[in-house]
Amino acid sequence: MSSASKNISRRDALKTLGLSAAVLGLTEFKSTATAADMPGKSTGPLSWDLPALPYSVGALEPHIDAKTMEIHHDKHHATYIANAKKLLDGHPDLLALGADGLVKDLSKVPEDIRTGIRNNAGGHVNHTFFWQILAPATGYEPGKLGAAITKSFGSMETFQTQFTDAALKRFGSGWAWLSLKSGSLVIHSTANQDSPLSEGMTPIVGLDVWEHAYYLKHQNVRANYITAFWKVLNWKQAEANYTAAIV
Ligand code: MN3
To answer: Which pLDDT band, with edges at 50, 70 and 90, does 247 fall under?
Structure first.
């Protein structure tokens, strides 16, 4: 067996184990994108590289456990990127738009790979956003965003209640969001890895409610995970997202 075919069968074997080639350093795709890690934070497209977590895997303990963070980032997020790159093999023009550029306008993606890109480029964009919107508690209180939330929803408590409700009611896998839509703050949820960007909205706060985000610690009790989320929500980043979105 040649080393190349050995490599391929090793990759296939890993796939059957649910591991992505990218995770194990076998990726054959080289990103040409050069931009920063955050959609909305820069003018360039989102890089196709797995962004490092901005804190250690255990930094959100006891609210979100280290093992969940490790698997979620190193396996789940990496797999979305690897899958999207695989689908985009032979489409350098689409790769160059970045995952955020693609989910903003999925009509640019050929129909035969559109659902795969919606799910996997969406997964990359959403998770890149998610790591940033979490942080060890700092006690930071959002000024400008706090005022906008109070104006939109009546109070911070009402906002949290409505957001929690949206997160609980999302049936199956998906996300709960606070987004900016035509200048207004809205609470909504999306299915699977659908991004607010696809609906012309800019995410300000987002919560992954896939079971892979909480099952190890909270099992089936999504409500406990949402309670934990409020303890590690990075309000400083949320405010930065809001400030960038309203200009
Ligand atoms: Mn996830």
So the answer is: confident
